[in-house]
Every structure is written in C-alpha cells, then in structure tokens.
Amino acid sequence: MKKIAAILGSIMLLICPLNLSAQENDQVLDLNAKSVVLIERNTGEILYQDNSNESLPPASMTKMMTLLLIAEAIDQDKLDLAEMVRISEYAASMGGSQVFLEENEEMSVDDLLKAIAVGSANDASVALAEHLYGSESAFVKAMNEKVGQLDLKHTHFNNTTGLPAKEHYSSAHDMAMIARELLKYDFITDYTSIYEDYLRKGTEDEFWLVNTNRLIKFYPGVDGLKTGFTQEAKYCLTATAEKNDMRLIAVVMGAETPKERNANITRLLDYGFSQFEHHKVYGRHEAVQELDVLKGKKSRIALVTDDAVSIVTKKGGNLDQLEVKVKINENVMAPLKAGEMLGSLMLYWDEELVDEIALISKEAVDRASFWQLMKDSAKHILELGQS
C-alpha cells in the first residue's frame, strides 16, 4: 500500500471510550463455570471476564469457525445457498449430533447451514467442508489459517465439528473473537435464530430440528450463536443478544449442567445490558470520505468503513470529547478492487489512539482506456487555460 497521507478531516463527538478491557471486573458475578467472557460486538470491548484465556475443549462451539469460513465463501460468491451438495460416505459416518445424512444424498447449502446452526449437525459440517475444500483436513488447515489471521493465541483446531481430538482447543476469549467475526455476516443470525424447523419437509425422511440454544426462545434479543457439549468440555455456549442498539457476546465454557450454563449466560447478558451503553459513530460500510482516482474510468469513489465504528461507555457516565481523524492514501491509481483498503479512520481520546478501522473502496474501478485518458487530459488542459 502507498504511504498514508495527511489528515483530511477531524470530527469532535461527545462520547468517551472506556478501555474497559484493561480494567478489572468491578463486580463479581455469581457464576459457576471454568471460563467466561462478555464483550460488546462492535468495539470488541471486554465488559467482564474470568479465566477467559485458559485453553479448553470448545466442543461444538468449534462450528462457529466452520460457519465463518462458509459465510465468507457465500459472501465472496464462491458458494450459493441454492447449490446442491452430494454427501460423502465419510460425512455420513459422523457420530454425535447429526441429521442422519446418507451417502450420495444431495442437500442444498441452505439446508446444510440450517442443520449446522440449529441442530449442530456434525455430518452437515463435514459435508460442507468437503464441498468447499475437497476434504475436511484441507478445511481444517483453512480454519487454523484464519486463527492466525485473527491473532487468536489460545486456539487450534483438528476437525470441523468439535468432536474430542488431541490438540483441539480454544478459550472463552478466542471464541468471543470468532463470534464477533462471524457476526459481520448478517445472514448468519437468520439461521442461528431459528428455534425449530424441518429438513426434507414433506418426505418420509422428514427431520425435525430444534435449536440446541434454548435461550433463543427464553431470553429476549438472543439470536445465536452456538452450544457445545462433550464429557470433557462439559456444557458450553456462545450466545449473542441485541438490545437498545447494542449487541453483546457472552461465552461460558465448562459448566456442569445446561441449566447452569444458561443461567451464567443470562447473568452475563443482564449485567452487560444494565451497566453499559453503546454509541454509534459510523455503521458498517457507511461512506466517510470521497477519494480521487487517477487513470480510472471513474475519477472519484466513496470510501466506506470496513466495519461498524462505535464506543461503549458505562451507563450514566460523564461523556467527553472523542476525536475522529481520517487518513487516506495519496495518488491512488486504477485499477482498484471493491473492498481495497485505501485509508483508515482513527478514534483518539486524550491524544491516545483507542481504535483504528480500515476505510475501503465501495466499488471496483477499472483502468481507463487510452482514448479516455487522452480525452481527460485534454479536458484538464482546457480547464487550466480557462482559469
């Protein structure tokens, strides 16, 4: 990337960042689990944590990473929801939670996604992994590459399902970060929020799906994400809920019973929604600045945020001024790809950088033809002569 140029603008807003992740819990919640964490989705701020970095078996919460790679493929048009997937003998042989796929059966990506998100189906997870990467092992390699990209320090995967395996582990913190990334794809909660549905509806092989995350039905605002259980992992859950324009992610690992797991999640969400509030600065993919493009079919394009930009504060806290600065690249030349990073938006508090978000091109720009460049050059010369 070209060197980022001078600041083009700054905006003063009456909002104050907390740097909450650096603080100790100011309240001890009555929780009973090996590891917990609560974060705000847009900022990633840690609102509460206890032993959140211990490496533990994640059980079927592993499928959040599986879903993340699938969501990315759909977003990049590498996979279509209507696409049919042929089930291999290996995928059909998966034990544990399953929807009893049969070898050589064909099922749509849409239904397989539903089977994973609602029914935690191991067979559906492997089937989509094989369809995308040719084999589960190749898909697992991609999962661990994504672990590196997200800079997760306490995670390594050995399968797509969360079935017990050596060197297969994660932490509450890392699960929350995976969930945060997964929630960039809005359509995911269209699946994880389903409480019950059917596969192969109207056939003799009709299969009833009931969401393993019962909080979908019993906690207002919960619309995901993933449960997990093995004898080694005990009861685990990554849950997300939205209320008053704030989305929280709560992770519990190693609870002794599903009742305790759900109670822990409920306490975490209650604490977060009662103690904190969210302030939106920019939405995801919201236009921030226009940029001149040299030698392109278009001379100007919009720069948009790569992700939502917001601040979390304690409720009723004193608000002060947050400075928002924009930097963009200079001498940007076509061709450009949609989503190409061309600058950054930075949040400062008391002259300290507290967050930085990429600014990306809203659209692709092809290089102009020779004749268009000649025409633009002549127009520019004419304008100079008239000035």
Give me a quick take on this structure.
By secondary structure, this protein is an alpha+beta fold.
Could you describe the 3D structure shown?
This protein has 387 residues and is α+β, with helices and mostly antiparallel strands. It has two domains: 4-17 and 283-386, Peptidoglycan synthesis regulatory factor (PBP3), Domain 2 (Sandwich), CATH 2.60.410; 31-279, DD-peptidase/beta-lactamase superfamily (Beta-lactamase), CATH 3.40.710. It is 28% helix and 30% strand. It is built from ten helices and 17 strands. Strands 1-15-16-17-13-12 form a six-stranded antiparallel sheet, with no helix packed on it. Strand 6 and strand 7 (207-210) form a beta hairpin. The chain is globular and about 80 Å long. The chain starts with a strand and ends with a helix. Mean pLDDT is 89; it is low at 1-23.
